[in-house]
Each structure stands twice: as structure tokens, then as C-alpha cells.
Amino acid sequence: MAERESGPGVSLRVLEGGRAAETDGALLRDFLAGDDAPFEELWRRHHAAVHGLVRRYARSPEDAKDLTQRAFLRAVSAARRTVRRAGDDFPFRAWLLRISANLGKNHARDEARWRRAPVADVDDLADGSAPADELLLRRERERRVKEAVLRLPRRQREVLTLRIDAGLTFAEVARTLGIAEGNARVHFHHAARRLAELVRAEEGEP
Amino acid sequence: MSHACPHFEPLILDRAGGALAPGDAARLDRHLAGCAPCREQAEAVALALSLAALPPPSDRERVAVAEGARNALRHDGRLRSRRRFGGGIAIALAASVALFLAVKDRGPADPGWTPPDLDAVWAATAASDPDATEEPAEVLFAELQEVDLDAD
Ligand SMILES: [Zn+2]
């Protein structure tokens, strides 16, 4: 059997030469030495988390796909010198996810694309009935809360999006950002509290 | 502002993050049953996070991205050539990291340049004001972006 599922989103594929057992650092080293196959293994391991992170900043699925590729290439390029020193222990996933979380932010800032995030599908349903109004209200609140996510202090935004967009546990978030797990949870608390305050303030509006 | 009880709000937020310790769950539920402000805050937090969440990607989107590795490599002619022969762009990237570190440490730039230690780079970032909106990391990434890997 060439492939088996070992959990949600995780598939262990036994590649020629046993690549599945190699560390990210070893794969990166071999890729930088000129072999393409290790890049595909790195992609297989990490593309879903990267995609989850950059989607928040993308205007379209195509845009998100493009950002995923850019994040990978940028991470590999920026890691070139460091991996030579750190060798097989190079924490490529942490490096990649940190870059992904901030590449997307830069993308959004540069393009201001998120401002144009469409209020989709409402026109089709808006016939004045209560459900459509509720949907419209919900969409408007979504837009405001998602904007507020982008305005969070950088560390809070990183922790929140690594948790809810990339689906990392707090232990993984902490490893990715090089902080203590308790610290990651506190950043999440601050972020969630801030968003909840926004929601409550809007509920208090006339 | 939330008027949730200071002792229970962390538990409310932990639960919202999926990280409530099993031992605390019953304690929190007992409290919520008798405390309206904490219930309101729990509802507001849950609503806020549901509004912040992205809809899951469609299967089609997932497949398209999963198949993107070869595409990324195809667009990677310059990276490929630098892989084999080394080159100026990697050095430029490295220099921007070194500059970043030099600014953080307020020390002189090292003309010989030492490869950056990942943790040092990010520790320096974390040491800055956590509430600043423009972090040094953004500067670093902005510099990385100046090297447009998709050019050509
Ligand atoms: Zn209470």
C-alpha cells in the first residue's frame, strides 16, 4: 500500500527512498542541492496549513493558491543560508508558517484587497424578507469582525490565525512562534476578547 | 466591556479556543448556570469567533492547491538557478536580515555577515512592543518581498 490516512489532513506516503521519514530540514537541504522531489514532499506536508493562513488575505481562490506558492518559494529562498548552518534540524514548518502569516498580511495591506471583500450572495436573496435581512446583517458583522482580525496587534493576529485558520493546537502555535504555550493562550485570550467587545458594542448600537 | 468574572473569563476564552482543561469544564458550566454576565460573554466570544472564521475551502480549491507544487517549481526558474550556482539574490536577502538584526541590536553591521539564527531573528521581534501595529518583522518581510520571486 502506497498511502494511508493517519488522521484528518495527514497522509503518510511511503515515497521512493523513504522521504516520508526525513526531517523537513533534510528535505530542504536536498531541494537546495538541486533535487525537486523533496520540495514536493515539503509541499505535501505543509501546503494545507499555509493555504489556510493565506486565504484570509486573498481576494479569490486563485489568489489564495498564488499566495500559497509565493509563501513556499519565499520561505525556501529566505531559509537558504540558515539551513546550511542549522542542517537537518532546521525548523522549516515554523519558518514557513511565520512567513505565511505575515506574507498574507503584507499582501492585504499592499493591495487593500480585503476592503473589497464582496458581500456575496445577498442580492440573490434580498427580497425584503426577514431571513435575507438577517443574512445581510450577519455578512456585515462578518466583514467588520474580519477587518478587526487584520487590525489586531501582530502577535495576537498570528496566534489567532494559526489557531483558527491553520488549525494548530496551542502547543503547535507556541512552537511555531517560539513562545511559551501559556503565552500563546494569553495572546488568543486578548484577541478573542477584543473581537467579542466589537460584537457586543455593535449589539448595543441603536 | 465585558463584565465577566475575572476568575472565569480565562476559562471562557480557553473553551472558545478549544483548550479548556477537562477538569475545568464542569466548574465553568456550574458557574455559567448561575452567572448571566459570564454567559453573555461566553456567547459574545463564541459569536465573534464564528464571525471571524473563514468558510472551509471547497474540495475543488483544496485539490487545486494540493497540486500546486509542480506549478510552484515551474515558476521557480530563478530559484532553481540560484540553487545550483548560488547567487546575488540570496546574498541580498541575507543582507537584509543582517541589517534588520543590526538595527535591532543597535550594533554595527557585520561586514562578513553571519547567517541569521532563526530564534534570534524572532526573539528580537518578540522583544519589541507587542501592541505596535508595524512590527520589525513586517519590515523584514517587506524587504523579502522586494525580491520578487515571480518576476521574469
Ligand atoms: Zn461569572
Task: Give a concise summary.
By secondary structure, chain A is mainly α. Chain A has nine helices and two strands, in the order ββααααααααα.
Give an overview of the whole structure.
The complex is a heterodimer of chains A (206) and B (152). With 206 residues, chain A is mainly alpha-helical. Chain A has 2 domains: 1-116, RNA polymerase sigma factor, region 2, helix turn helix motif (Rna Polymerase Sigma Factor, Chain: A), CATH 1.10.1740; 118-206, Arc Repressor Mutant, subunit A. Chain A has helices spanning 24-32, 37-54, 61-86, 92-111, 122-125, 130-151, 154-164, 170-177, 181-203; strands spanning 3-7, 10-13. A two-stranded antiparallel ribbon of chain A has the order 1-2. Chain A starts with a strand and ends with a helix. Chain B is mostly helical and 152 residues long. Helices cover 66% and strands 0% of the residues of chain B. Chain B has helices spanning 9-16, 22-34, 36-52, 59-66, 68-74, 77-85, 88-105, 118-126, 136-146. Residues 84-152 of chain B have low confidence and may be disordered. The chains are: A mainly alpha (206), B mainly alpha (152). Chains A and B meet through helix 2, helix 3, helix 4, helix 6 and helix 7 of A and helix 1, helix 3, helix 4, helix 5 and helix 6 of B. Residues 4-5, 8, 31, 35, 37-38 of chain B line the site of zinc ion.
